[in-house]
Amino acid sequence: MDRRLIPRLLREAGLPARVHNGSAQLVKIAPWLISDRALFDRIAAILAGTLAEASAHI
Fold first, then answer.
1. I want to staple 39 with a disulfide (CB 3.0 to 4.6 A). Which of 1, 11, 35, 56 is the partner?
2. Using CA atoms, how far apart are residues 53 and 45, in angstroms rounded to an integer?
3. By the 8 A CB rule, do 29 and 15 touch?
């Protein structure tokens, strides 16, 4: 799988994040300074959708 796929999908979904491909896969999200439950629910949905789409490319 292309290492740039997940960062690109997250960016397209509007989620600022970094993906580190070291010994363990790590996604660092960067939520806005003022965040509420609705925003964290949206972040979780974006991550779930992105990872599901990326797994289809494996």
1. 35
2. 12
3. yes
Residue of 40, 47, 41, 48 whose CA lies nearest to 11 = 47
- Residue 20 pairs in a beta bridge with 26
* pLDDT tens-place string over residues 9-33: 998 998 888 888 766 678 888 777 8
pLDDT score recorded for residue 24: 66
Element (H, E) at 17: strand 17-21
Q: Which two tokens stand for residue 34?
A: 């003022």
C-beta separation of 38 from 28 below 8 A: no
Return the top range by mean pLDDT from 1-5, 24-28, 52-56.
52-56
